[in-house]
Amino acid sequence: MFTTLRYVIERQAKNQYSFGNLDKEKELLYEMCIYLDDQSKKKINEFLAINPNPYLFNNMATFKFIMIALQVCNWDNNNELSTTDITNIYKAYLCCNDIWTIEQEKGIIDANSEYEKMSLMTDVPIIEFRNYKDFKPQLFKAWRLFSFMQNNTPYDAYLSDFLKQNKISSWQEYIAVLFSFYSCTLDKSIIRIGANDSQYIPFFDELCINKDKCQDIWDRQDFNYLRNHPLLKKDSLYLVINPNLLIERI
Fold first, then answer.
1. CA distance 210 to 192
2. What is the pLDDT of residues 107-136, one digit of tens each?
3. Measuring CA to CA, which residue among 175, 192, 171, 187 is closest to residue 239?
4. At CA 67, angle to CA 3 and CA 97, rounded to 5?
5. What are all long-range contacts of 30-35, with beta carbons under 8 Å and residues at least 24 apart?
6. Which of 28-42, 130-144, 183-197, 198-212 has the lowest average pLDDT?
7. Residues 230, 206 contacting (CB under 8 angstroms)
8. Are strands 231-234 and 190-192 parallel, antiparallel or unpaired?
9. For the chain, what are the domain ranges?
10. For the residues 155-174, what does the mean pLDDT come to?
11. Is the distance from CB of 204 to CB of 191 less than 8 angstroms?
């Protein structure tokens, strides 16, 4: 299961910071074609002929794929992916893309001619995940919030409880640890915490997905669980399912 999610997440990461780069989008499509049958390749070529701006991997379809994989994949099977495995991954991912597209189309149809309602239905749920999140305003807001809480009663008590819960000594350390981890995801999806930072392993373990909580995660469409648990751990490796979710934690 770990290798399945890693395969998709690493491809999603290729356009995470280059939204609209047609060359990268086409590279991902052509890579997918290697694993498809001739009839499917023909359909893709026909699609590209009338849709010159392809967009295969995106945040919302990836989140849906993650939920399916967490529920149905074998957690104990982390072998290298076979050609058949990769073909099935692409089929499942295309289904997730289709589901997401249909959901958006339904929102537009239901809204009829009420533009404001249509805009809200189609934009609000995804606007913060359409592209990558800018960490700079998030850092500023976190700094201001924690500083306010530290210097005002009764919020200082809430801040103290928050730090105890996260096993961190100060809010400055909390921001630094999360941002340091996030900065490592800019060029890779797999992170290993070094021996010098081993004291933070319990902190990041609390952010990891728990197998027992995922038995029906797709059935209940529990996106909030992913928001609260943006990491998947295998041995000493952490797979970041989406860097946007780390920025949310700051």
1. 19
2. 555 555 555 555 555 554 444 555 667 788
3. 192
4. 95
5. 32/56, 32/90, 35/83, 35/86, 35/87, 35/90
6. 130-144
7. no
8. unpaired
9. 2-123, 135-249
10. 92
11. no
Give the predicted TM-score (pTM) of the model: 0.83
The two structure tokens encoding residue 80: 């290298």
Q: Write the burial class of residue 158 (CB in 10 Å: 0-12 exposed, 13-18 middle, 19+ buried).
A: exposed
Cβ pair 10, 31 in contact under 8 A: no
For helices 38-50 and 22-33, the axis angle rounded to 10 degrees is: 160
Pairwise CA distance, residues 240 & 4, whole Å:
13
Tokens of 234: 């295998």
The CB density around residue 189, as the number of other CB atoms within 10 Å, is 20
* β partners of residue 239: 190, 232
Cβ contacts of 149 within 8 Å, gap of 6 or more: 155, 156, 158, 159, 171
Query: Do residues 209 and 239 lie in contact, with contact meaning Cβ atoms separated by under 8 Å?
Result: no
User: Vertex 105, ends 91 and 13: CA angle to 5°?
Assistant: 45
Distance (Å) of CA 73 to CA 3, 59, 67, 86: 11, 20, 10, 13
Contacts of 73 (CB under 8 A, 6+ apart): 1, 4
